Amino acid sequence: MVRPYRFSLEEFLKLPLPERGVELLEGEIYQMAPIGPRHAYAVNRWNRLLVESFPALLVQVQGPLALAPDTYLEPDLALLHPGDYRERLPGPGDILWVVEVADASLEYDLGKKLPLYAKGGVPEVWVHDLAGGRLLLFRTPEEDHYREQIWVRPGERVAPLAFPETLLEVPW
């Protein structure tokens, strides 16, 4: 019988892969689409907003997260508790929330990555749907899904669960 080989995170990190654009989802390697100008612009705007709004936190841009022994994700932005990550990748206990920017990747972000964020216990995930002109907020992870889903329209303000007193106007 022919079976696919599933990589552990340790094996994955030893592979000669490109520096970015590759993720490990439950042992399977996925090549992400190249970043286009709309996506890059949105990530840069989010980065500025989050750094200015939360200067005491670490805003990690398109960096790695280790959510399980076989899962390595590179979200567009992750808000992390400050810490020394020189010897380890940030994991579930380090993450306050994640922002994914979806231009051509909405199906991948919602269908593949979102369940893994929930399984990993990431408390909140925001998906900026560029094509749909909306922000999707997912909160309260339970097994492989989120119990709460909120759609935010352009011009509306929203506060992250970790900082309910801080309203952010979503960059469009």
Automatic annotation (TrEMBL):
Start and end residues of each Putative restriction endonuclease domain: 9-166
Stored Pfam families: Uma2
Transmembrane segments: none
SUPFAM superfamilies from the UniProt entry: Restriction endonuclease-like
PANTHER family: SLR1083 PROTEIN
Protein name: Putative restriction endonuclease domain-containing protein
